[in-house]
Each structure stands twice: as C-alpha cells, then as structure tokens.
Predict the 3D structure of the following.
Amino acid sequence: MLGDRVNIYPIKGYSITLPLSDKISQQKAPKVSILDDEAKIVTSRLGKNRFRVAGTAEIVGDNLDILDDRINPLKEWVEQNFPEVSTKDAQPWAGLRPMRPNMMPLVSRGKKENIFYNTGHGHLGWTLACYTANMVGELIKG
C-alpha cells in the first residue's frame, strides 16, 4: 500500500509451555536458556513455574493449526534431556513469525516520508529487536 516491497512471509513456529507444578520439575528444569542447534530447539525458563520449549518452522501461509507431529518432538526432547520434568500438561502453541527469504530483518526507510521498516526477524525477533530498533533510530536521526 505504501509502494515498498518488503518481501515478508509468515513462517509458522511451534512451542510448548510446561507448567512446573511439582517441586522436582521446578528443580530439574534448566534455569538458563538452552539452544540445541542439532535438534533446532531453544528453551527458556519463564519464572519459577514455567518452562518453554520451541522449535520447527513451516511455510504454510496463514494456517495456525497445531499439529501433533510438530508438538510431539518437543515433548520427546524434554523427556530425553530432562526426564524428571513432567510434560503431561504441556500447553502447545503455534504462531506466525514475519520472515524474509534471506533470514535477515528489513531495517530501512520507506519510499514515503516518515515510513521506516523494522520487520522480518522471524524466530530471532526478541534476539535482534533492540539492536534493529537502535538502527531505525539512527535512520530517523539521519
């Protein structure tokens, strides 16, 4: 609508959030983020009572269906690596992440005055957000 080609596509990612409702799960779940590069899985501890495990990506358009074939490997990863952490009440999630084909976020001026882009981060949104926001600030300052 603004005359710019941003080349952004929805990439569907999956995660599970595990409620750490018993003492053993709370003690045995990692307290730091983990990246298993081989399995393409990343984890985050969310306070005392939750543990998030995310992985996989699909190009499926606007589809938000949650597929067991994508959720089960996340549970199995936890069961293999942290067998004392319960997965029985895992809460599945699927969401669309804006991504560019080259996996690099778009940080640029638009064709029209006062339009700036900071998008396309995909699964690295939180990781890159502060840095690219600073880049946009520099563009605005000139």
Notes: The helical segments are 23-28, 68-81, 125-141. The chain has a mean pLDDT of 93. The chain has two domains: 9-99, 106-141.
